[in-house]
């Protein structure tokens, strides 16, 4: 092996090690719980659990999956009519929001996503036309793609006119995030290439494999969009028998 070949082999080894460390830091699914939650045997061992004395089965971390989302520039996520995530950094830097989810099916996902556009002009950073983009992947295999619905609620600057910019908008429909909301007349989402979106570094530190970047058909001028998807899993039933009733109110 000459010196050049040795250098190449060494570089590959370092890269492989770095990749392995990266993967070790970011497990795709939580490790099976041990001890307190009664998760003996992990996911395979659920049927062997002792039934609780009171007949109530609580969900555990074994029942959860990881979820990751990245929006250009900001989003709020609802699942089955409940708000479960909000992009905690308004628009800069482009960031990934990573959460644990307790999936229940059918699962209706509704996302309000916004480009960083001035509501008065539709422009971004002064008089520029900025673009949007959203991508999501859940550990149960749910990903964004053209099977989602996508509808625009704020568009501008109309005709790309940045000299005399105008916008058109309509209010979000009541219950846009509800499972029962009828989105059947909405257009399908449009998929965009990673090159078109040009995501920033945090995107590459998370697993979005299989997921597509989506938006409406106008990535530039549609600034506020709602993206919806209903995930079916026939014959699914929850392992747990209890549900909380928690709302952001006093009662
Ligand atoms: Ca825009
Ligand atoms: Ca943007």
Main features:
251 residues; 6-stranded antiparallel sheet; 25% strand; binds calcium ion
CATH class of the domain at 61-231: Mainly Beta
Q: What is the molecular shape? A: elongated
Helix content: 10-25%
Main sheet overview:
6 strands, antiparallel
Radius of gyration: 22 Å
Identify the bound ligands: calcium ion
| SSE succession | HEEEEEEEEEHHEE
Structural class call reads: alpha+beta
Low-confidence spans: 5-47
**What value does the average pLDDT take?**
84
Q: Strand arrangement, largest sheet? A: 3-2-5-11-7-8
First-residue to last-residue Cα separation = 73 Å
Secondary structure tally: strands = 11
CATH architecture of the domain at 61-231: Sandwich
Please report the number of helical segments: 3
> Beta-strand level of the residues, as a percent range?
15-25%
CATH topology of the domain at 61-231: Jelly Rolls
Characterization of this structure:
It is a single chain. This protein has 251 residues and is an alpha+beta fold. It has a domain at 61-231: Sandwich (Jelly Rolls). Helix content is 12%, strand content 25%. It is built from 3 helices and 11 strands; from the N terminus they run H-E-E-E-E-E-E-E-E-E-H-H-E-E. The strands form 3 sheets. A 6-stranded antiparallel beta sheet has the order 3-2-5-11-7-8, with no helix packed on it. A 3-stranded antiparallel beta sheet has the order 4-1-6, with no helix packed on it. A hairpin with a 2-residue loop joins strand 2 and strand 3. The protein is elongated, with a radius of gyration of 22 Å. Bound molecules: calcium ion (2 copies). One calcium ion (CA) binds at residues 115, 117, 124, 129-132, 220-221, 223.
């Amino acid at each position: 092996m000459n010196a050049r070949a040795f250098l190449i082999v060494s570089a590959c080894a370092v890269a492989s090690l770095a990749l392995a460390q990266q993967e070790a830091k970011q497990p795709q699914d939580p490790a099976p719980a041990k001890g307190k939650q009664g998760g003996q045997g992990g996911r395979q061992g659920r049927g062997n659990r002792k039934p609780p004395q009171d007949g109530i089965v609580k969900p555990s971390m074994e029942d959860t999956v990881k979820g990751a989302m990245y929006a250009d520039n900001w989003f709020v996520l609802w699942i089955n009519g409940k708000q479960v995530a909000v992009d905690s950094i308004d628009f800069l830097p482009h960031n990934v929001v990573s959460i644990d989810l307790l999936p229940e099916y059918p699962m209706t996902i509704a996302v309000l996503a916004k480009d960083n556009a001035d509501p008065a002009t539709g422009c971004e950073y002064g008089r520029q036309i900025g673009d949007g983009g959203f991508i999501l992947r859940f550990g149960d295999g749910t990903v964004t793609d053209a099977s989602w619905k996508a509808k625009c609620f704020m568009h501008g600057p109309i005709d790309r006119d940045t000299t005399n910019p105008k916008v058109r908008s309509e209010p979000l429909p009541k219950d846009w995030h509800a499972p029962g909301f009828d989105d059947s007349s909405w257009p399908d989402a449009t998929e965009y290439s990673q090159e078109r979106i040009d995501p920033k570094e945090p995107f590459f530190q998370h697993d979005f494999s299989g997921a597509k970047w989506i938006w409406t058909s106008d990535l530039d001028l549609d600034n506020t969009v709602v993206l919806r998807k209903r995930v079916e899993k026939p014959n699914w039933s929850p392992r747990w028998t209890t549900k909380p009733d928690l709302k952001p109110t006093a009662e």
